[in-house]
What we know:
alpha+beta; Immunoglobulin-like; four-stranded antiparallel β-sheet
Amino acid sequence: MRTATRWENMDGAVFGAIVGMVALSFVVLATPLAQVSAAAVPRCSLRQLAITANGQVGAGGTDGGVLTYRNTSRHACSLTGYPNVVARGPKGSAIRAVHVFSGMLGGWDWSGLSPKPKPPVVVLSGTKGFASDWFQFSENGPAGYTLFRASTLEVSLVGSKPFVRVRGIVDAAEGKMWVTPFVPGRTGTDEPTTTPSRLG
Length: 200
């Protein structure tokens, strides 16, 4: 029986490595570059983010503000979907914002494309990346409506119990408030494109 030489064994190893690289290239080429890069970026943790609320002038009885999220760490991280936002009123009273794509003042897919696209994956670069979303509420309601008043918002990330308190004025009719998805930048509003991830 003939025994394989050292060089023949090496050729087999090299051939296997080449086959593996070709297969990996196929996977990467079959996946959009934006998805590959976004998938490689870890999700932001609450301690990486500086969160602020900026009140905005309302329209048609709707008021609210833009919540901004700045990455304060040196490492890129990503946000997608919605935050959890609770308005904390006097004597322990509270209302939780409902997740919606957009509202009167802005949000995701504000122009109203159909079918609704998924919220983007926003990649926040280290120390200067921004994401944002809207919290909104109506000051008008049916006859005899009541206003829920609060000046503190508790903001947390989905799947995480810790929250950050920020100052945000709420005068919500019937205690109803909503929040839009994370989008890149500081305006709280963005439109879909063919790219599923965005740089904030």
